[in-house]
Hints:
This protein has helices at about 30-35, 95-100; strands spanning about 1-15, 15-20, 25-30, 45-50, 55-60, 70, 85-95, 105.
Amino acid sequence: MIIEVLKSKIxxxxxxQAELNYxxxxxxxxxxxxxxxxxxxxxxxxxxxxxxxxFETYVIKGERGSxxxxxxxxxxxxxxxxxxxxxxxxxHMEMEEAKKYQPILVFPDTDNKLIK
Length: 116
């Protein structure tokens, strides 16, 4: 049996931009996606802590070290600049592998930078 489990999570980042007139996606600082083992074009789920919205889109790599978390296209309607979001990616695994898997959890600081 194959199940879907949490692969990685970027916990409580601040939305820095919202660009409605864009094709779609979320642009995320390359440091954050690298730390979370998320790749460009990977599907992610986003949860907005401020308004409860939950939505899915795909990732675009943002400038390394910029702290960028930019909602593009229609997703720009689901959060405002300054909102706190959680970004999650999932993977499909066999049940036995999933029982042993430990997701990657990234906890950035209030400026969306990695804590060292």
